[in-house]
Amino acid sequence: MDIRALSSDADRRLAVPILQQLWTDKSPAEIMAWTAQEAYTLIGGFVDGELIAVAGVRIDDFLHHTRHAWLYDFVVDEPSRGEGYGTALLEYVEEWASSNECDVIGLASPLAKSQEHQYYTAREYDKWGYVLEKEL
Q1: Using CA atoms, how far apart are residues 134 and 72, in angstroms rounded to an integer?
Q2: Residues of the chain whose pLDDT is less than 70?
Q3: Three-state SS at 93
Q4: What is the domain range of residue 54?
Q5: pLDDT, position 75
Q6: Of all helices (H) and strands (E), which one includes residue 67?
Q7: What's the pLDDT tens digit per position in 17-56?
Q8: Which of 120, 10, 122 shows the shortest CA–CA distance to 71?
């Protein structure tokens, strides 16, 4: 799999249908807007020239946490799941984060997604807390 940053508008448009598999309630315009944010990095995996996996990540420094990469979006196109492409992309993102001097990589996942939790814990991701939110 060829993996590279998706920084142009054309690249990001390619990612919209895949990201909509994760964010089913978001419009293409909303996805294009958040993937264009300066601190957000979109990374894509290609097989035979076709985009089949996408990761969206940003690096942050906060007083309450060490320098870290936060994985906001991670999805493999449904027909390509189970082929190892997600693992290859995740390893790339981890190496990218490390090369950008991050101490950890983290993500949030809905409680009901137990299969996804198993995927990440099998790759040495630790549960260390809860993400709590209140709708306003």
Answers
A1: 19
A2: 63-64
A3: helix
A4: 2-121
A5: 96
A6: strand 65-76
A7: 999 999 999 999 999 999 999 899 999 999 999 999 999 9
A8: 120
Which domain CATH number covers 99? Answer: 3.40.630.30
Number of structural domains in the chain: 1
Q: 57 — alpha (psi -120 to 50), left (phi > 0) or beta? A: beta
pTM comes to 0.89
CB crowding 106-129: b at 16 or more within 10 Å, else e: beebeeeeeeeeebbeeeebeeee
User: In 3D, which of 78, 25, 38, 30 has the Cα closest to residue 54?
Assistant: 78
79 backbone φψ class: left, alpha, beta (φ>0; ψ -120 to 50)? alpha
Task: State the CB neighbour count (10 A cutoff) for residue 21.
Answer: 13
∠ CA 136-37-88, rounded to 5°: 105
pLDDT at 1: 96
Domain-embedded: residue 133: no
**Residues contacting residue 81 through CB under 8 Å, at least 6 positions apart:** none
**What pLDDT was estimated at residue 81?**
95
Q: How far is the CA of 123 from the CAs of 49, 56, 77, in angstroms?
A: 27, 18, 20
